[in-house]
Design brief:
Bound molecules: magnesium ion
Number of domains: 2
Oligomer: single chain
CATH class of the largest domain: Alpha Beta
Number of strands: 19
């Protein structure tokens, strides 16, 4: 019978990890770290359900990768765990920090096999160094280093977390309820990723795949009299602009969709809905900047971008250079990696009748190579 739920805690801001991607989004082969951890746990035990706790922003993107259950974290580890426990119905729960990314199958099986109602099973390491506490050495034989995953009785853990005390792990919460604490042998393999230097101590992390991801985006907007026309964030001299919920920068919108397309994260409407007041009249370059930050946080590097603007009017020849350089700045790319092409529709169809403009964009992304960092 499946009587254990797996909870993976990954909602921390990871502020001590000083690389462009968040540590949860370091890529191992073709998987982000958090997904590798979740998938590898499934090969060790058959859980009733797997719950991944993360930030709201991350969850929106994580949903595109796998059908695990995602729960929004709180302001602390304990709040995050409480949120996750709300939906847990199994008698036991195995809780692990997602940053403890290299799993030791035997250690996890030791934890699971030792389970006991009302108690908590904790993997521990022996202390090999001398430790001073407030100026005096303590008996290292009586000291232990505590690891995760820890297996707890769900009801006892839920009850313990109702108390107004901030526990740093599940075993201290269970101990406060007079639950049994069962120590089992931990594993040096279960090292936690906190700072960049830890990456070399985590042999389970593979080199990120070097394959290029290709994305395509298209956007169309009709003209609207009396509005400032914007293309690639550049003001275009024209008696009309673009009818839109935002500033109508049709070129930027196509670029955002190409970037989101390559990353597999969705489309512009999912991130910046045109039904939201927040984005009424918004400067589209702000949306692009936000997209670039999101991609960098999630371990993607932009390779290049190629844009075709299909317009009978206005004439864009004199703006192409300004558009290229502005877009390059917004994307943190060298200008030669941002190509802008303009063409007419030879007076055919709605573009030819000067009713609006269409833009197509193609882009490549790569995974951030943390090994070279
Ligand atoms: Mg648009």
């Amino acid at each position: 019978m499946k009587n254990i739920t797996l909870i993976l805690l990954g909602a921390g801001s990871a502020s001590r990890f000083k690389l462009p991607p968040k540590k949860q989004w370091i890529w191992s082969g073709e998987k982000p770290l958090w997904l590798q951890v979740a998938d590898n746990f499934q090969t060790i035990h058959s859980f009733k359900e797997t719950v991944i706790v993360s930030s709201k922003d991350d969850i929106q993107s994580m949903r595109n990768f796998a059908e695990y259950k995602f729960v929004e974290g709180g302001g602390s580890r304990q709040e995050s765990l409480k949120n996750a426990l709300e939906s847990v119905s199994t008698p036991f729960v195995l809780v692990s920090d997602i940053a403890r990314c290299c799993l030791d199958k035997e250690m996890i099986n030791r934890v699971i096999l030792a389970k006991k109602s009302k108690g908590c099973v904790v993997p521990t390491l022996k202390v090999v160094d001398t430790i001073y506490f407030k100026g005096s050495p303590i008996d290292r034989e009586e000291s232990k280093i505590i690891q995760t995953p820890q297996l707890s009785c769900t009801a006892t853990l839920k009850k313990a977390l109702l108390i107004d005390i901030e526990f740093t792990d599940d075993s201290s919460a269970i101990a406060s309820q007079d639950g049994d604490i069962i120590f089992v042998e931990g594993s040096v393999q279960a090292h936690k990723l906190t700072v960049v230097e830890d990456l070399s101590k985590l042999p389970c992390l593979k080199k990120p795949s070097s394959k290029a991801l290709i994305g395509f985006g298209i956007d169309i907007h009709p003209f609207e009299d009396g509005k400032q026309m914007m293309l690639c964030g550049v003001e275009i001299d024209s008696p009309f602009g673009f009818k839109a919920h935002s500033d109508g920068d049709v070129a930027i919108h196509a670029v955002i969709d190409a970037l989101l397309g390559a990353s597999g994260l969705g489309d512009i409407g999912e991130f910046y809905p045109d039904t939201s007041d927040e984005y009424r009249g918004v400067d589209s370059t702000e949306l692009l900047k936000d997209t670039v930050i999101r991609l960098n946080n999630f371990g993607y590097i932009i390779g290049n971008i190629d844009l075709t603007i299909i317009a009978q009017t206005p004439k864009l020849l004199n703006y192409k250079k300004a558009m290229r350089f502005n877009l390059a700045k917004l994307l943190n790319l060298k200008p030669n990696l941002v190509n802008i092409k303009a063409t007419t529709a030879e007076k055919l169809g709605w573009i030819g009748r000067k009713e609006g403009v269409a833009v197509e964009a193609v882009t490549t992304l790569y995974y951030y190579d943390w090994i070279q960092a």
